Amino acid sequence: MKKIFRNQKGFTLIEMLIVVSIIAILITIAVASYNAAIEKTKEVVCISNIRTIQRAVTYYEILNTDPPPSLKDLQPDYLKSNFDFTCPTTHKKYIYNLENREVRCTTAGHKS
Ligand SMILES: [Zn+2]
What we know:
Layout: H1 2-7, H2 13-64, E1 95-97, E2 102-104
Antiparallel strand pairs: 1-2
């Protein structure tokens, strides 16, 4: 009986199952890493946006003596007119506090 299997070409069912399960595990790890990298990238973009807005607020205040009443007043002179004031992760608008000129994201981990 063993002699018959050794003369056959190809893989056994067990060998195929092992290979398929290893490939499935590798794909699972790759997808998880990819998703984590995408989320980290969005967080970095959010922090960069907040810093850009804060610099524009400071620049506006230097030139106009008062801070901008709203973030929309920064466009188009201090920020590009197509600048998006939303977090790339949550798609919610940034919160602007006029009193302390603070710009922040609603997501707790996104701080500049
Ligand atoms: Zn954010």
